[in-house]
Write a structure and sequence with these properties.
heterodimer; A: 204 residues; alpha/beta; two-stranded parallel ribbon; 4 strands; 12% strand; globular; B: 225 residues; alpha+beta; Cyclin A, domain 1; SH3 type barrels; 2 domains; five-stranded antiparallel sheet; 29% helix
Chain lengths: 204, 225
């Protein structure tokens, strides 16, 4: 059963956030409950190794290979696992395709659920109250905050990530990219285009 | 009533402020430390993801609103460590016992981090009740949205979608029920569906007649129409 503590134990730690983290980390290290080297490894993983470049590779491949794209949209998990994109906060993936008729956009109104293996740690705005509150009610106004305007004939589907399923948007392939290879295409795929708050870049 | 975290549809938050695409993954060093400490503590195996989400939701509305993102994480983690008996209030106050903790042998080691993160924590399970709904079927969500098992408990049915008519879009499989799992009541897996709602069902002034909102909802959140 839930217990609400009027005197939450966290108030025993220093109030300033950086000091609060440091104090708790120090206590846990002294007791052998966390290993400082493991912390460095976790930070390095999400700072340098896992990020939107993973998702961009998947999108570029889907743009280039119709068989891959069909398999990805039908059942993403085995397709992504084969590319090595599986893990924490990406255990159950669904890929949704943007078309001229329908634009997809992803939010987590209740917390900050996000497909870590494909996009890394979510940006600050994705976790902000404004995005969580507004994306489901007024997605087009939120898109305007990103400088995106959809044609009137395009409907919007907002996916509120309320379970352990994580969503990746497959943006539309930009015009004028017919001759490009997967690496060049991947460079056009922005993080925001895979959340649905942006569009893929048009080649310069 | 649900809790302060349940903010979907709320008015008054102002513009979304996008960051540059090349902004740092962690805006401050302590953000990275907060994330890493939280993940490393999760590896001690004393709670599950639903418990830890609920710990953040149980911050007082005052704290939840004024804390930045990783302040919520680290403060809820401290609360959870005490609640689960891993640390004492004396420990947090810097007056705890010295020496290694009984759980120290479970601490996540650097060489096991990659494997632990890659393994993840799948939420799908075998068994559970029979699938009750098929794609296209009209359903209505529970009203009120409250957890049916625990007063004030964790649930993943947002207030804005309570009592609303929607349509089954797809079956995701059978997944752990957070309403039960967050409270030590067992995993109680149930069929999980993506459910499609017309924006005009949820909002008095939808932006566009064809817009939709999709939520992932467990079978016990839904009744047939």
């Amino acid at each position: 059963m839930p217990h609400d503590h009027p005197d939450h134990p966290h108030t025993l730690l220093p109030p300033e956030p950086a000091l609060r983290v440091k104090a708790l980390e120090t206590i846990l290290v002294q007791k052998g409950l966390i290993d400082p080297a493991a912390l460095e490894e976790i930070i390095d993983t999400y700072q340098n190794r896992i990020g939107p470049q993973n998702g961009a590779r998947v999108v570029a491949k889907a743009w280039s290979d119709p068989v891959f794209k069909a398999a990805l949209l039908a059942d993403a998990d085995p397709v992504l696992a084969e590319l090595g994109y599986y893990g924490r906060q990406g255990e159950h993936m669904v890929v949704v395709e943007n078309t001229p008729a329908q634009h997809n956009m992803v939010v987590c109104t209740l917390c900050s659920c996000y497909p870590w293996p494909l996009l890394g740690i979510p940006p600050g705005w994705y976790k902000s109250d404004a995005y969580r509150a507004r994306a489901v009610r007024e997605p087009r106004k939120v898109l305007a905050d990103f400088g995106v305007t959809l044609p009137g004939g395009t409907s919007v589907r907002v996916w509120d990530s309320t379970a352990e399923v994580r969503y990746l948007v497959l943006p539309m392939r930009p015009e004028g990219t017919e001759g490009l290879g997967e690496d060049e295409l991947a460079a056009l795929v922005t993080r925001d285009s895979m959340i649905g708050t942006g569009l893929a870049q048009v080649p310069a | 009533m649900t809790r302060v975290h349940d903010m979907g549809g709320r008015f008054g938050d102002g513009p979304v402020l996008p960051e540059a695409a090349d902004a740092a993954v962690f805006a401050e060093d302590w953000h990275a430390r907060a994330l890493a400490v939280t993940l490393a503590c999760g590896a001690l195996g004393q709670w599950n993801i639903d418990t830890s989400r609920h710990a953040r939701e149980r911050l007082s509305p005052r704290d939840y609103t004024r804390f930045s993102y990783y302040e919520k994480w680290i403060s809820a983690l401290a609360d959870l460590l005490v609640e689960k008996g891993v640390l004492t209030r004396e420990d947090l106050a810097g007056q705890g016992a010295a020496g290694l903790h009984a759980l120290a042998e479970r601490a996540l080691k650097a060489q096991n981090v990659a494997q632990a993160l890659a393994r993840g924590g799948p939420a799908d399970r075998d068994g559970g009740p029979a699938v009750r709904f098929h794609p296209g079927q009209a359903v209505r969500t529970r009203l009120p949205a409250d957890n049916a098992l625990a007063d004030g408990g964790h649930t993943r049915l947002p207030q804005y979608a309570a009592g609303a008519q929607g349509y089954i879009l797809r079956l995701h499989g059978t997944h752990v029920l957070p309403d039960s799992s967050a409270h030590g009541l067992g995993e109680a897996p149930e069929p999980l569906y993506a459910v499609r709602f017309h924006a005009s069902t949820l909002w008095a002034h939808p932006e566009h007649p064809d817009d939709e909102v999709i939520l992932d909802l467990w079978q016990s959140y839904l009744e047939p129409l």
